[in-house]
């Protein structure tokens, strides 16, 4: 019988620790598939964050760094500058990238580092057990916003893609979602485009992936997908926010 | 032999790093070491090497983590408040066993402190600074020539043991100019960096640069491995200078860096008053050169006087080395004040004539 | 000669740091041990500037000069600040065009030189510092004038060499 579906070469055989229904597995797979399809797995170097995907260094089959919380873009900068021929990516969650690591992501982007950031936004801190994230929606209940995020007290969510897209060093920025098969395929195309942008040396690229966290949202995976569509999509509109690849064609 | 050139300490460090084949520099401006970054910003691009001004010391040390992890020879530089910011990253670098060189041109503290010379980061440098059980070799040159000579050695030790190394100077060594000669040194044999994350390039197993071990037994095993490495460094890499110690002295002074060179003047001045002093000068602060005390313990009448530009942070290490066999006293200035030879000699006389401990 | 521990002091922009540097270069060429230490930090942003220079046959301990053997001052605040520190019988060289008071101490050797006027006659007030430096080496004999000129030729900007040279020579020739 012919084999029609395999694990991509970009992933190791290690079983992941992610919760049932978590979308990290999908996003990991998309990154691995893209690296393989672009033929750059051999020169890819990943940088894992602190957060739920802290163990990503065990799952990606390329060389990987485990960075301190929020510092992945700085680590990736060091890697890329020292090894300019490599294909470097950071894989970060919303707490890592949009709270403690805001300075690093903004400056890596504005320097136009030839790296790619895969930014997983599930509007909550996952690993520490469901606290309010910089991306938590107004009114959303979390461990540390038990009465719902009050914007008078806790301020407003950050729209990372829109913010990064204002920087001249950012070459490709897109927000995607993995809530449906169609959107998963679109997400893959965006990630591929982002890596191509790096490989062609155009500049910094970021793909924000709207994701779910059934465990900490307290919903089933199916309900979580509905919640993402009903609540996250209106606040975080999908689409390409910046595309310098077209300008350079 | 090369030609002697007159150079500022900070710039001499930059030139020495270039000659030691440093490939990448990441840093953030802070007085009194910014001229080092400026020097490398000018020179590194000409050599097709990397200079990046980071957005913060926090980012700079993490860029070091990234570049060192690829196997490149890398350096950063800062001054006290900046080193505090880098301390988290240094802990990660020690944990992940990455070689790099960190320059600390120490200024007065605590807090924003002053920008004048100080030695008040001794504890931070030698006892950790960041979290976890780690140490790193700390070099404390007392002249610009020695700074230059130690740069190559520090890079080699970093590679040899897979460890961050720190070079501690102070605002005076950084800002002053004195003649220096760049002698071509024979590098030590360092192992190949087969652990580096360079991209697979056909390698079967992926390399991971990491300091996370969720299983406590794994974490302890890693710590046992690190401690074994620190033991080897303690055994092999301690350095010191003994000055006027091959005679019976009234008193031994213990001082490092800028303070040590001031104390050499004190020793000269004391001779005129008929007082014989020796100097134990640690060149590495970690590992602390306890051997230097074994060699001098029987040749001092009144014990040891530690002289520092701090509240006496090195005194603990001196006492541990002396281990109760001789009295250990202290004289120091703080906050960016530099001890005056006259005042040091006054303290020496107190000890000798009045028995003040 | 015996060693010299010199403090140069004045306003930022008067060439205080560079006169010290040229002397240090010359001292090195003359085979002496030398050190040069500037004041740094906010002090160097427009306000006062000073530097310590040591030339000696001995090894140099502290590069900080606390009791100068020679003091060169190019403004009043510097005279106020450093006059008390000068050693007994120490040499005080001051720009008499800029310092509007006489030294208080009787146990020192003061020399006033109208360096601004001399420099202006030479075509550029900016070389007043070199006039004073010329006077300094003439009076202290710390290095030969040829060595100083050679150091300036090697380490100074080429387009200013002739002007600098003439300022040094005028400083040397100034009759006290």
TrEMBL record, chain A:
> Organism source for this protein?
Alicyclobacillus ferrooxydans
Task: Say if the entry is tagged with keyword Oxidoreductase.
Answer: yes
Keyword annotations for this protein, in alphabetical order, are:
Oxidoreductase
Has keyword Repeat?
Answer: no
* PANTHER family for this protein: 2-OXOGLUTARATE OXIDOREDUCTASE SUBUNIT KORB-RELATED (PTHR48084), SUBUNIT OF PYRUVATE:FLAVODOXIN OXIDOREDUCTASE (PTHR48084:SF3)
Extract the InterPro entries matched here: 2-oxoacid:Fd_oxidoreductase, THDP-binding, TPP_enzyme_TPP-bd
Which interval of the chain is the signal sequence? none
Enumerate the GO terms in the molecular function aspect.
oxidoreductase activity, acting on the aldehyde or oxo group of donors, iron-sulfur protein as acceptor; thiamine pyrophosphate binding
Question: What protein is this chain from?
Answer: 2-oxoglutarate oxidoreductase
For biological process, the GO terms are:
cellular respiration
What does UniProt list as this organism's lineage? Bacteria, Bacillati, Bacillota, Bacilli, Bacillales
Domain named Thiamine pyrophosphate enzyme TPP-binding is located at 63-209
UniProtKB/TrEMBL annotation, chain B:
Keyword entries, A-Z: Oxidoreductase
Listed GO MF terms: 3-methyl-2-oxobutanoate dehydrogenase (ferredoxin) activity
What EC identifiers does the entry list? 1.2.7.7
What is its EC class? oxidoreductase
Identify the residues that the record assigns to the Pyruvate flavodoxin/ferredoxin oxidoreductase pyrimidine binding domain, covering every copy. 15-193
Q: Which residues form the Pyruvate:ferredoxin oxidoreductase core domain?
A: 250-344
Q: Does the keyword Oxidoreductase apply?
A: yes
Keyword Metal-binding among UniProt keywords: no
NCBIfam families according to UniProt: PRK07119.1
What is this protein's record name?
2-ketoisovalerate ferredoxin oxidoreductase
Q: Which organism is it from?
A: Alicyclobacillus ferrooxydans
Source organism phylogeny: Bacteria, Bacillati, Bacillota, Bacilli, Bacillales
Automatic annotation (TrEMBL), chain C:
Pyruvate/ketoisovalerate oxidoreductase catalytic domain segment(s): 12-171
Which keywords does this chain's UniProt record carry? Oxidoreductase
Read off the InterPro entries from this record. Answer: 2-oxoglutarate_synth_KorC, Pyrv/ketoisovalerate_OxRed_cat, Pyrv_flavodox_OxRed_cen
Q: Hey, what's the signal peptide range on this chain?
A: none
Q: Which domain of life is it from?
A: Bacteria
Q: Name one GO molecular function term.
A: oxidoreductase activity, acting on the aldehyde or oxo group of donors
Q: Does the keyword Oxidoreductase apply?
A: yes
Q: Gene3D superfamilies this protein is in?
A: Pyruvate-ferredoxin oxidoreductase, PFOR, domain III
Q: What is this protein called?
A: 2-oxoacid:ferredoxin oxidoreductase subunit gamma
Organism the protein comes from: Alicyclobacillus ferrooxydans
């Amino acid at each position: 019988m012919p084999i029609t579906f395999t694990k991509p070469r970009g992933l190791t055989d290690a079983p992941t620790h992610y919760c049932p229904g978590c979308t990290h597995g999908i996003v990991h797979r998309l990154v691995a598939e893209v690296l393989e399809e672009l033929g750059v797995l051999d020169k890819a170097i990943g940088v894992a964050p602190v957060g739920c995907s802290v163990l990503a260094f065990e799952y990606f089959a390329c060389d990987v760094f485990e960075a301190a919380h929020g510092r992945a873009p700085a680590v990736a900068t060091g890697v890329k500058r020292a090894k300019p021929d490599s294909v470097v990516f950071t894989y970060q969650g919303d707490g890592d990238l949009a709270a403690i690591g805001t300075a690093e992501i903004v400056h890596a982007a504005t320097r136009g580092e030839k790296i790619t950031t895969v930014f997983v936004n599930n509007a909550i801190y996952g690993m520490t057990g469901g606290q309010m994230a910089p991306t938590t929606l107004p009114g959303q209940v979390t461990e540390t916003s038990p009465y719902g995020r009050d914007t008078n007290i806790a301020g407003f969510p950050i729209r990372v893609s829109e913010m990064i897209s204002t920087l001249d060093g950012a070459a490709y920025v897109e927000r995607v979602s993995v809530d449906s098969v169609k959107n998963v395929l679109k997400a893959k195309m965006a990630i591929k485009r982002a890596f191509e942008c790096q490989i062609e040396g155009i500049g910094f690229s970021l793909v924000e992936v709207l994701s779910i966290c059934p465990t900490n949202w307290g919903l089933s995976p199916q309900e979580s997908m509905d919640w993402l569509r009903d609540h996250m999509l209106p606040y975080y509109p999908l689409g390409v926010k910046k595309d310098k690849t077209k300008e350079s064609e | 032999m090369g030609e002697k050139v007159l150079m500022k300490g900070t710039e001499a460090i930059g030139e020495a790093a270039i000659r030691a084949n440093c490939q990448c520099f990441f840093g953030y401006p802070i007085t009194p070491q910014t001229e080092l970054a400026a020097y490398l910003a000018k020179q590194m691009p000409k050599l097709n090497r990397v200079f990046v001004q980071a957005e913060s010391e926090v980012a700079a040390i993490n860029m070091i983590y990234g570049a060192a992890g690829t196997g490149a020879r890398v350096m950063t530089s800062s001054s006290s408040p900046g080193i505090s910011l880098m301390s988290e990253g240094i802990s990660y670098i020690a944990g992940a066993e990455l070689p790099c060189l960190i320059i600390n041109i120490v200024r007065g503290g605590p807090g924003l402190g002053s920008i004048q010379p100080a030695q008040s980061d001794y504890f931070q440098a030698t006892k950790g600074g960041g979290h976890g059980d780690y140490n790193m070799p700390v070099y404390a040159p007392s002249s610009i020539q020695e700074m230059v000579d130690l740069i190559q050695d520090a890079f080699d030790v970093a590679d040899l043991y897979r460890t961050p190394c720190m070079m501690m100077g102070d605002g005076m060594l950084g800002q002053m100019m004195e003649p220096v000669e760049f002698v071509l040194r024979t590098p030590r044999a360092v192992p190949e960096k087969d652990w580096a994350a360079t991209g697979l390039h056909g390698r079967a197993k992926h390399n991971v640069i990491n300091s996370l071990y969720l299983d406590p037994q794994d974490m302890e095993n890693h710590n046992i491995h690190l401690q074994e490495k620190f033991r080897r460094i303690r055994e092999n890499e301690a350095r010191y200078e003994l000055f006027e110690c091959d005679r019976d002295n009234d008193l031994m002074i213990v001082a490092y860096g800028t303070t040590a060179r001031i104390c050499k003047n004190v020793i000269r001045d004391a001779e005129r008053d008929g007082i014989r002093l020796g100097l134990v000068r640690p060149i590495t602060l970690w590992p602390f050169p306890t051997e230097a005390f074994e060699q001098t313990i029987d040749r001092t009448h009144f014990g040891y006087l530690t002289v520092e530009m701090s509240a006496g942070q090195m005194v603990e290490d001196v006492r541990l080395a002396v281990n109760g066999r001789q009295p250990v006293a202290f004289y120091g200035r703080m906050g960016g004040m530099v001890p005056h030879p006259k005042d040091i000699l006054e303290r020496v006389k107190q000890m000798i004539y009045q028995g003040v401990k | 000669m015996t060693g010299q521990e010199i403090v140069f002091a004045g306003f930022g922009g008067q060439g205080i740091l560079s006169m010290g540097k040229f002397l240090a270069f010359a001292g090195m060429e003359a085979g002496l041990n030398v050190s040069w230490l500037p004041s740094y930090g906010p002090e160097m942003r427009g306000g006062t500037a000073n530097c310590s220079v040591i030339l000696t046959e001995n090894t140099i301990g502290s590069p900080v000069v606390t009791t100068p053997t020679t003091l060169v001052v190019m403004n009043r605040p510097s005279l106020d600040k450093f006059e008390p520190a000068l050693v007994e019988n120490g040499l005080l060289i001051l720009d008499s065009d800029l310092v509007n008071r006489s030294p208080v101490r009787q146990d020192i050797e003061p020399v006033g030189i109208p360096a601004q006027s001399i420099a202006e006659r030479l075509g550029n007030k900016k070389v007043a510092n070199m006039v004073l430096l010329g006077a300094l080496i003439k009076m202290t004999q710390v290095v030969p004038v040829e060595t100083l000129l050679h150091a300036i030729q090697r380490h100074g900007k080429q387009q200013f060499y002739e002007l600098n040279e003439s300022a040094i020579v005028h400083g040397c020739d100034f009759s006290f």
